[in-house]
Structures are given as structure tokens and as C-alpha cells.
Amino acid sequence: xxxxxxxxxxxxxxxxxxxxxxxxxxxxxxxxxxxxxxxxxxxxxxxxxxxxxxxxxxxxxxxxxxxxxxxxxxxxxxxxxxxxxxxxxxxxxxxxxxxxxxxxxxxxxxxxxxxxxxxxxxxxxxxxxxxxxxxxxxxxxxxxxxxxxxxxxxxxxxxxxxxxxxxxxxxxxxxxxxxxxxxxxxxxxxxxxxxxxxxxxxxxxxxxxxxxxxxxxxxxxxxxxxxxxxxxxxxxxxxxxxxxxxxxxxxxxxxxxxxxxxxxxxxxxxxxxxxxxxxxxxxxxxxxxxxxxxxxxxxxxxxxxxxxxxxxxxxxxxxxxxxxxxxxxxxxxxxxxxxxxxxxxxxxxxxxxxxxxxxxxxxxxxxxxxxxxxxxxxxxxxxxxxxxxxxxxx
Amino acid sequence: xxxxxxxxxxxxxxxxxxxxxxxxxxxxxxxxxxxxxxxxxxxxxxxxxxxxxxxxxxxxxxxxxxxxxxxxxxxxxxxxxxxxxxxxxxxx
Lengths: 394, 92
Fold this sequence. Notes:
The complex is a heterodimer of chains A (394) and B (92). Chain A is an alpha/beta fold. Helix content of chain A is 31%, strand content 11%. Chain A has 14 helices and nine strands. Chain A is globular.
């Protein structure tokens, strides 16, 4: 038997099945968040049917993928949403789903509180209606708070409040924590990425350099009590690593299945360049995961390119592939938010308008949330940015 | 600091599923929704042997753990017990 490598290196080479994955069940959404990483809004007529979804769940059970992070769009607007959740948990596939809270009524909350196998994540991008609704739409703060009240009243413990960190809400971290504490929830902070509609709004929404430091210090101070999905590993270059293993799992230990069954390397990379195949193909999801040439290439040893001589490379590993791609940067160079500042100078050399465009757009036509607070719209938080390595007891 | 009782009987928690991997295994607890990694194949053999062994120490010996390694395996089992991946048999 060949020697067993350190776990991070084992993961970098890929596993025969993902540890977990993100599954976006629909592109339909009642909101039009300005940073939506999947450019959701309208249902796609080609979306997987109930039976096709169940066939995917059967595969996940066989492959022992123990849980999926379900998102969308707004997954709960699918008429078969609860049927699929029940089917998954009956087949040993745990479910965590992200929602804006629209369907989390008292009775739904009671049902969720009664199940060990389902976890809920409420998206909230501002600790006040003013900041939240500027990116997520008018009334969305009230909807999210009502959902939290219902979950809390039903006795649901430790549900998640998921926040995409932006320039406008970095100053509210303590207030987010207070909201989570009030409802017996756990706070989860994730990184804004220039994916989907986020590509159009990233310039106005992404945290400024000084705010990144503020965020890093806050995360260090709060330790493992606050979840991050390991999405801030580019900040590790500030100093000590944040809790969790710092690894991009795209196509190696995680992936995305989109509503029409397309399999992408990660939820932030909905673009033909990162499309590995479709679950409707002959080999199904397993065939895509195990034989896609794209995933095979991601599982090869990667070079750091321009970053490999940087003292921080071992900490940040060059940052996020999707963030680089959608800002027009080379994949083997610095992250656009590189804390050493190399990203900013690299961005200066990107020709305006040359950035890759997302391959799909399901946005509501003529109806976009207007950023009234500072400016543009924002993107919702998609699930399997929950890095499987987050919060592990190793 | 490590008070894991090697001489007690232990077993996998009934809500825990095991996925063997080259490096060891993934463990997932459907009740706590937590994932853990078993980082060596030997530790996986220990974990799999717990149910049929009289004690955790016996499971370790049968999996090939020698006396010098026993403290580190006790520590690993303590970690798994703390996250409810394994449980004492009498608590079943």
C-alpha cells in the first residue's frame, strides 16, 4: 500500500466521491439579490423532475455522500421540495438547505425542529433592514427575521444565519452575532464572490482592504463559534490560519449540481470552463465525478504560478479560483482580494470588459433590486461553500 | 487530560455512517450533522472492531496497535467520543 498523505494532500488529489456537495434545486426565486451567484430568478424549463432528483439521491446514497447543501434560487418554492428532503433523509443523505425564509411558517418550523436530519440556513446580508434590503430587496429582512422567530419558537436549535460579508455589513458583525444569539442560531459568514450577478456588483460590494483586516481580526477573536465554510482562506495570509483546513475543494471533494443537472466544480463557478458534465448523461452523477477530464485536471498537482514565491503562499494557496476567473485574473496568479495587495495591482492590468461572463442568466427581467444604500445589488449565499473541512474535529 | 476509558466497551453510535477511504475513513453523524475524519487505516480498523471487542484496548490490539502507540489511539478515540461518534456500550 502506498503511504497515506496528510489529509489536505489526500483531498487535493480528489476522492472517489465528494465529501458533500451543493445542489441548487431551482433557478426560481422570489428575490433578485444583486449578488446572486447563480443569477437566479426564473425557473428553467429543463430543471430536473422529481424522479430525476430522486435518482440523483439514490446515487448519492450509493456513493455515501452523507449530506448535501441545497440551495437555488429559493429551493422551497419547488412544489416537491419537502418530498425531496424526506426522500433524501430516508436514503441516508442529510440535508442542509439555504433559504431566504419565505416558506418558513410556524408549521414548517415545527416540522424542521422535529427532525435531526435537516438543517436550515437563513440568508441575511445586513443586520438592519436598511443594509440587508439594499442587496436582497425590500421586505427581505422582515421575511428572514420572521423565519428566525418561527424557528426559535418551534425550538429549532442551532440553525444557521448565513451572511455574505460586504463593504456595507462588515461594520455590523457584532450585531449579526447578537441576532444569532437572540434566536439560538449559529452565525455563518461567507465570502462575497464575483459570480453570477455578483460579477456586476462586486466592485461596489466587496470589502475594502482595511475591512478585510477587520474581518480577519473578528474571526480570530470569535474562533470556532462562528462558521465560515472555510471561505476566507485567502485571509490566512494575514497571520495565523483561521479554524479549519485551508483548501479549495472544487472538483476534488466538493462540487455543484445545478437545477438542470449540470455538474460544476463549485457553486461559484457556473461557467462553461468549469462544467464537468450532466447527471442526465449515461454514467449519471458518479460518471461525471469520476471520469470528467475537467475534474481530473483539478486533481493534478497545481502550480502556484506568480504566487509561488510569495511568503504567504502556503497559507492562502493563491486564494479562490472563481474569484480570480470572474475578475479576469489568471488562475495561477493572486486572488483579487489578496491581502498582500498583489490582487489590486493585477486587476489594474485587466482590460475593462474582458472579464468572462457567467454562462447562464435566469434573472427576472426588468426587476432588479436597486442598491439604495451605497449602490448595487448583491448575490445570495450558496450552500456548498460550506467547505466540508469546516468545523472538523480532526 | 485524556481520560478515555480504554478498558470499557465502546461502539459506533447507531446514527453514525462510515465511508472507508484510502487515508482511513469519513464518519458522519446523522444526529449531530457532524463530519469527522479517521486519519489512518489502523484507526478505522479499531473503530470497526469496537462493537465485537470486549474493550477498546482489545480492539486496538486486534487492529495492530502496539503499546507505544496506545496513548495516541486513546486520544483519537477520546476525540471521537467527545463528538458522539462512538459511545459506551452500556449507554446503548
